[in-house]
Amino acid sequence: MKDAFIPPKAKLIIDRSLKPKNGDIVLAVINGEFTVKYLKKNPFKCWLIPANKKYKEIEVTPEMEMQVWGVVTAIIVNPNDTRCML
Amino acid sequence: MYALVDCNNFYASCERLFQPKLENRPVVVLSNNDGCTIARSDEAKAIGIEMGTPAFELEDTFKKYNVAVFSSNYTLYGDLSDRVMKTLAEFVPKLEVYSIDEAFLDMSELVYKDLAILGMDIKRTIQHNIGLPVCVGIATTKTLAKMANRYAKKKYKKLGVFYAANQELVNEMLLFTGVEDIWGIGRQYAALLKRNGIHTAMDVTKVPEEWMRSQMTVVGQRLWNELRGTPSIEWEYEAPAKKNICTSRSFGKLTGDKSILMEAASNYTAACAVKLRNQYSCAKAINVFINTNHHKTELPQYSRSITLEFETPSNLTGELIQYALKGLDIIYKEGYLFKKVGIMMLGLIPDDQVQTSLFDTKDRTKNKEALKTMDKLNKLLGRDAVRMASQGFERRYRLRANHLSQKYTTNIHEILKIKN
Predict the structure, then answer these.
(1) pLDDT at B311 over 90
(2) For residue A50, what is the nearest residue in chain B, using CA coordinates?
(3) What confidence score (pLDDT) does residue B172 get?
(4) Model ipTM value
């Protein structure tokens, strides 16, 4: 999640009780694995967008096992770890 | 109206919450010391793993079905239980925590609410906010609510809610429930009822009240009333203070080393002392016991216990440990391999009713303040962050816990790590 200013060792605060909205950063589970992505959705479709151009966007299809585990509400970062992002 | 909310396969569900790849895989949680099965996911039940089976008997099954096995992680379960209870408390004015994974909700004040919808709302909220599946049973008495919960689990698994809103629905559930599955009926009473041709909960409601009373004392009478829709079991908002406190555990492996026994005894005593202070009690006496493994008949056997009375009833860790070690010193014998040491606190009284002995020279107020600070620190920094020297650091007697998961929710160093 480099381009969302989340360096590798960042700590994320996650709120499960929130309803995920379009544009939220979420902790999602795809096929049993955790991943942090931007959530993009409209009434018909839903995507998980990585904030790192190296990775591809994922369109969520009905046959995929995808679940939003929680919504990221805060990011805690050690300033030394942010240098790599400049 | 009462609701009973109960988490499905609680321990197994807790483990799965932080390891979603275990979805659809059988999950089993083992008791202390990795002894026997104490929780199973539905998949584990389906392949025939029974409750309370020793783990070593299941090794082949575990391998064959790729079962995910866990040591019990009570820190995690306790914290998640807390979260469930706090969330439940937002729905109703009165709540009784019945066990780590179930609670009674008093719905009598919610007369204008559709309780079936409320039940589904509760289920959805716990699933969403905490991530644990629950079932909800709603009925006019606690016994019926408990039954409705079981009925929901067996009959309406998908929905997970059963509201016994009218007599017809109550009857449906009474007919479905065998006497052995009624809350509060043990094996003996179940056998007694069956001998008399009473097989379902429905049958129980049809016998005369007098018969139930004569055969099963007031317990039976209360049950009869509860099943017929008259609340007869009292509401307990707060668990009553415990009358005895005991900490005892089997060692990871047998030991004859006295220093290890002393360390274990110190730690168990310290744990008891914290429990005493948490419920504002003092103990009048301490009981120390040790025993060898009586299953290993080839080894020499020895077991003994001793009770020492305090001069002044106490809950001061240092003082209690002193007595515990004195007791251990008296009963310890060389040349045996011990399996277990245990500490029991006896004769508990409220700590404001303590009469100090005439010859008591200890500065109790100062000591108390110090321990208060210690308890606070330990709550903040983790169990036993501050401790008595005799408790040691190595925990050489420690239980086997080879499959322990992380303390995901209570320890910053063990939070979930996500590779992206």
Answers:
(1) no
(2) B420
(3) 95
(4) 0.90
